[in-house]
Amino acid sequence: QKEVEQDPGPLSVPEGAIVSLNCTYSNSAFQYFMWYRQYSRKGPELLMYTYSSGNKEDGRFTAQVDKSSKYISLFIRDSQPSDSATYLCAMSRPNFNKFYFGSGTKLNVKP
Amino acid sequence: NAGVTQTPKFQVLKTGQSMTLQCAQDMNHNSMYWYRQDPGMGLRLIYYSASEGTTDKGEVPNGYNVSRLNKREFSLRLESAAPSQTSVYFCASLGGESVNYGYTFGSGTRLTVV
Question: Which residue of A47, A99, A100 to mutate against B (max B Cβ within 10 Å)?
Answer without folding.
Answer: A99
